[in-house]
Amino acid sequence: MFVRDVAYSARTLGKHPVFTVAIAITLALGMGASTAIFSVTNAVLLRPLPYTNSGRLIVAAGEMQKRNVKDWPFSNADFFDLQKGTTSVFEDLAGVNTGRGTLPKEDGTLEEVRFAGVTPNFFRMLGAKIALGRDFVDADGQPQPPQPRAATAPVQNAQRLPNIAILSYEYFERRYGGNRSILGHPIAIAGGGGPEVVGVLAAGFELLLPASANIEAQPDIWIASRLAYDNAQRNNVSLHVIGRLKPGITLDRAQAAVGRVAAELRRDFPIHNTSGFFIRLEPIRQHLVAAVRPALVALMGAVIFLLLIACANVANLMLVRMYTREREFAVRASLGASWWRLVQQTLAESLLLAGIGSLFGLGLAWMGIRELLVIAPANLPRLQSVGIDPAVLIFTAALGLASAAIFGILPAVRAARPDLMHILRGSGRAAGLGSGAILRSTVVVFEISVCFVLLVGSGLMFRSFLALQRIDLGYDASNLETFQLLGPRGATPQQRAAFMREMRDRLRALPGVQSVTAASPFPLTGGFYPIRWGTAPALVDPSKFQAVDPEIVLPGYFEAIRTPLMAGRTFTEADNAPDRKLVVVDRLLASKAFPFESAVGKRILIRIRTPQPEWVQIIGVVAHQRTTSLAEPGREEIFFMDGFLGHGVASQWAVRTSGDPAGYAEEIRKEVAKISPKLLITRMQPMQAWVTRARSGTRFSLLLIGIFATIAALLAGVGLYGVLSSAVRQRTAEIGVRMAMGATPSEVFLAIVGNGLRLSAVGIAIGIAAALALTRLMVTMLVGVRPSDPITIVAMSGAFLVITAIASWLPARRASALDPAAALREE
Question: By CB neighbour count within 10 A (0-12 exposed, 13-18 middle, 19+ buried), where does 637 fall?
Fold first, then answer.
């Protein structure tokens, strides 16, 4: 029976191609957008991580609560204490740290490699598969024996334990061509003594931690860390810790256990006590997506709203169609068709339309996903796994069924309960159209209110994006070409200082180059880790020490990147020496350290190169730089000379040019090669590209929500046009009578437009209330604007009233142009 209903519906819809295509396109837009965003949401938020029992994996993050520092790595000793004190709640705890370096290729040139140091249990805990060779064993992490004094070093060094390494499958194929002979042999490094390769990971293994952790997701070489317990080195932190809870252990119970460990560390070690050391546990998937979850949830909500608007529009079209078929349904009912039989016929048509819309929507989603991957922000994890998979197909099918129910129920119920006597005696379509005017108007008000929420959301994102464009970065990113330089700089401080001078001189001599500088780290490129600073009271009360982000720079750094000098002076060549304990600070630190007085000439305590803080003198105050985020100011900053830390520390270079900085890339490479063929340039790109990347999250949300809001506004406008057009058709006789009685065309025109404005006003009023409630969920996505921003709400109200006027104009114009005599004859 149902198959016959579907076949009948197909024949009926085939006779009305315009109606069918209009509904198919409307549904395809809503379902395609929903499917595309769900594919991203599924890959990032919903799909389990590719680890064994990933639901029990927990990230342990250190915090210095008195210094407002979160996600702080662990020292070796802290890791061992955590491991020892939580055996009742954790099956296992493992540590990892990553970085980048260089290795020589067969032709002697260098290649950049990503490496990771892990505790030997790391792969076993995560369930990583070994494709070739073996996994790490506990002996691979045995600490190195104490190093002897220089007099006996040549003899004792021969007994040093070798480092043990496992290669990623991708690096194994790329570097060694899949040659198994590397197993059991050391990796070639300059001077020998490279780690011995014992295994190769299975393809595709990835370390999934948030971008803010500064962890390499796909290291090439994994080395078993030989960790030693050393109380004296608790300030030296490097380990990111992941653990697996025992079955049945709750997160709260585990948090209580690590809380006791943190309390013991605060009791036993002053550095932990004065910093307010705390250990926070967080499920690994939650930790991974914390930064992107609000945006994805907002986007998913936006496309569901868009789909609801599409369904409401289709429902209105279906209602109009049902009213024109009321006589058909009335005849069928009078011949004995049951209520359920009529409902079944109407739902079959709705399911067929939903199926067509789903197929077209799936095609749009497939194309849309490719575009999403191009514009997606860099901090969106697991992007490579986004695609049309079984879960997405199930979602699309469920969405189709839900859509059919949403837009099909009202027309089905309305058509299945015809007033037989009224319809069979009625004159035609106008009566049918009139009987559903209130219902169709209600649906349009719903469309407008939901659309208005999307418009407000897009307006808030637009204002946030404008705010990001106007933010003072603290430097001029234009005409700056940046790159990282890896490779040997010299064995002694003097050689490294000479190398840095030669680099600057050669690059500065290039035609069109205005200035050259280097820093480590460089703004927006990652790698910022805070150090301690304080004033004299911190000597008596160490809890008064606070956190600051350090930056190692060359003389001329502030002039090259054009960071304004607020007071004092910047560094000179004479300052670039280890014995010159001079620093430049930003205005945030200066105002915090010495409020209401000049910081120039004052001294502060800093711990960066000695176990205990040392005094340094402030020679200048500069504007605050946005170094880690454009949306947030970030921590205070302090700047040291490269020579203060022994020369050659600054590895990220910036060249200011008179033209397009990208056009200087090849010349820069040639000059660097002249200095040494062993030097390797990586991450070369204009500074503006880093700024664009920092804006990418807001731009991504703005673009998508803006597109959805635009489509929603068009659909709502079309829905309003349909209702007003139906009203004109229904009221043709009434309009004819009014015009015959003396009503002018302008009065008729204004009456129809007024009807549209009334519907819009009601929808906007409901939409404002809904927007005030729902846009609160966007608070973490907004920059420089509140969710309840009145300017945005007023602007979007005005924009939608313009849409209303446009949608009302055609029906109103048609009504005002009616010939009264012809209108009365037609009815």
Answer: buried
